[in-house]
Design a protein that fits this description.
54% helix, mainly alpha, 3 helices, 114 residues
Length: 114
């Protein structure tokens, strides 16, 4: 089969089934657009996460108390031994430690009024 014969055969096939050809082209276009969209969203999320780590810095360390189980986040609740202000004072005396910032993180219900 010559190249010109292949092009004529393809043209006849497309023209004889216009709706099917249109839907096929539309499906291909939607597929390409969705891959491009998901790739750009994934890249945006990656950049956001990397910027969060860069904001935290390479010279900072966050220390959380240990846990009794492997479920959920580390914290004061369900910890083997909660961290105290005395622990923060001891960390301040470690060589090369410049600053220690103790903080409490958790959830609580707040109500206002009678």
């Amino acid at each position: 089969m010559k190249l010109i014969d292949g092009l004529q055969w393809t043209t006849r096939a497309v023209m004889s089934n216009r709706q099917r050809s249109f839907l096929t082209a539309l499906g291909i276009a939607v597929g390409i657009a969705s891959v491009a969209l998901l790739t750009s969203v994934g890249e945006g999320v990656r950049k956001n996460v990397m910027s969060s780590f860069e904001d935290f810095g390479t010279r900072l360390i966050a220390i959380s108390p240990g846990k009794l189980n492997n479920q959920g986040m580390a914290g004061v609740i369900n910890s083997v031994r909660p961290l105290t202000l005395e622990d923060a004072a001891l960390l301040q005396r470690v060589p090369y430690v410049q600053h220690v910032v103790p903080m409490i993180r958790g959830q609580a219900r707040i109500e206002y009024g009678p």
